[in-house]
Predict the structure of TRM5 methyltransferase.
Amino acid sequence: LWRFGYPARLLKTNHFRTAASNTSFPAVWILLAQYSGRIPGCFVVVKKNRFSTMPESVEDKANLELYSPHPEVRGMTLLNREAFKRTVVVPILKVKKEIVNTLLKSLKHTVLQRPGLKRVVEDPEDEDSRLVILDPYKIPEFSLGESEQEVLKQLNVCPDVSKYNLELTYENFKSEEILRAVLPEGQEVTSGFSRVGHIAHLNLRDHQLPYRYLIGQVIIDKNPGITCVVNKTNIIDSTYRNFQMEVLAGESNLVTKVKENNIAYELDFSKVYWNPRLSTEHGRIIELLKPGDVLFDVFAGIGPFAIPAAKKKCHVFANDLNPESYSWLLHNCKLNKVDNKIKAFNMDGRDFLLGPVREELSKELPLLKEGQKTSFHIVMNLPALAIEFLDVFRHLLVGEPCSTAGLPTVHCYAFSKQDNPAKDIQERAEASLGTSLDGRCSTYLVRNVAPNKEMLCISFQIPADVLYKRPCP
């Protein structure tokens, strides 16, 4: 064996000596094959039932299904919590109650660690003792290892492991485990959702729709504070940025409160657009602003850019075409006490740019003095369409260009399904503006929306020759 280079530490281990003394010579070769993954000059099929640490008996298989609900729940569409009850056999130690806490600390990696399941139960035969439940995955053959036995010896505890019938109920399983047991085998399980206040928002796949009411109820059961679950039933409408939804479980109250970056908002989730996954992006843009800057929010929604900008003492012009969004924008401005710092509009985005934005820029840009630090930012967060609005900036202003530092910075959002999404976004923006942005723009990956679909933000200062139309000599 030494000739083949097998290390001494393998040949000297108790595991090897025990195997070598209790098995035939071929079995020793198999053990070595398991160690190295090969045997020089030959091919061996290793039989799992010889040296596998995975138990094979029916009773022990039940142990490995400790975290699996009863198989009869497969295909359930209306939730029946009683059907999830099952009994599994787990290993236990009998311990004097005085040393239970010490034992739990000493065997913390061996004791059962499962939220909702007791690790210590009463001993029905001895009121002075307790039964400590061990993890069946760590004690697969109901026998402790040498290190655990040494701990028990020091604590004067009998190392004999007994079997205990543990009853599991619906409450003991996680939502992923419940849904994996219910949905057909091999099909994708959905347990993730967007949380909007007390509402859980799902985007279910077609194969999950027959189980949607069960999925909704499981999410409510397993997530404290969720009292309503909805599923999107169509794509976002590009005009008002809302979508049809079905209430799957819980109350039908879709007016909710959310908190983002320490700012509170209220909204009707069925009538306005809100995406909690954009919290980081909202914060990123606000970090770019300085007190005294001017922000034009073209597609403002209920105010996740506008309100924190106003709190940062920026001058804010916020617009949204959706009357519901406009109404909630006004409401949230008052809620956050910035209603006197934000000028709100209920207009088409193009009209907003051609009207209030052009008017303000025409008035303020000529007044900028060399070295003045005021910056102008235009946020266009309508990824499905915003790039199509960039042509508005062509000759939006008339006159001589202001200093380069005073040119407005645009933050425009868009979706891309191309292999090089940054290049795709830049090329589309250039087509709308009618000029090259090479060396004059940056792109930022906001999030992955779907497989092969990215949301990006392209930021650039509007070139002077695009923004200004010079008067004829």
In short: The chain has three domains: 86-168, 175-253, 273-469. The chain is about 30% helix and 20% strand. Confidence is low (pLDDT under 50) at residues 1-64.
